[in-house]
Structure formats: structure tokens, C-alpha cells
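Quick illustration for those who missed Monday's session on complexes.
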Amino acid sequence: MEQTLILIKPDAIEKRLTGVILSRLEALGLDIAGAKVVCATEALLREHYANLKGTAFVDGVVKFMMGDYNHLPDHRLYAFVLRGENAIARVRAALGATNPEKADPWTLRGQFGCIKEGVMQNAVHASGSPQDAAREIALWFKPEEVLK
Ligand code: UDP
Ligand code: MG
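Prediction with magnesium ion bound:
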């Protein structure tokens, strides 16, 4: 069984889309193996997005993930571990392309994402590969917080 890390991003939290997003992902037959509210620090987000280091947009992405472009009272993100057959690829398919303006209209990012302040505010993060999933789950969750 595969596990994947999901983050509900500040744009989706502001629009109160958490339930809609989770329900679409649960409908794929995936189980929730971990769930928490995280007040994300800049250090945690820079570690999470280590692959973006050196790009022109990484600072904007970190600011966005800290909630700076949305009307939130804090730096909250909602983190989930979802589990199921082929979970990583199936969740990524449900999300659609990174760029919400290019994502298919039936995908979560195609429906709920937008580009603002030069950042792709695309509603949800999901791990892109088994290696990323293992690294990201270990970054956001303690082992005892995830069902075996
Ligand atoms: N991002 C952006 N502009 C870009 C590329 C990425 O704003 O040109 C943001 C976007 O929110 C994206 C995140 O940075 O989800 C991480 O980028 P990545 O390439 O890993 O895309 P993802 O795996 O999220 O589809
Ligand atoms: Mg990625």
C-alpha cells in the first residue's frame, strides 16, 4: 500500500475547501492514515520545497505557504497522509497540473487554483514520487502519528 503526503494550502483553507478536497480524494478509495493542523515555519517550508532552492519563485512560494497572501489568522496548513493502492499517482492525477491555468477543468487545481502575486496558488500539495512521499511524511509527521 502506498502513502502520500497531502497539504491543504492557504488559498484552499481561506476558501473553506478542505472538506471538498478531502472528500474527492477519499472517493478514490484512499484512507486517511494521518491528520494534523500545522503552524508551518519558514524553515519547515524551505526544507519541504528543497527542490525549488535557487529558483526565482521559491521565496514567493514560501510566503504563500505561510499564508501571507490569504486572509488567515495564523500560519496554519492542514496535513494528511493518505494511503491506498497507487495513491501517489492517483492523487496527482486528481490534482491536475501544477499550473492551475493549464490544469484540466475537472481536476482540483483546475477547479480551485489561480495565479496571484506571481505564485501558483493551487490549493493542494501532494507528493510526486515514492521517494518524495517518504521524505515528506517524515518531515511533517512523527512515526507514531501515522497509522501502520
Ligand atoms: N510554483 C509556482 N511557480 C512555478 C512553479 C511552482 O508558484 O513556476 C509553486 C506551486 O505552488 C507549486 C509549488 O511551487 O505547487 C511546488 O512546485 P513543484 O514544481 O514541486 O509543483 P507540484 O509538485 O506542487 O505540482
Ligand atoms: Mg513537487
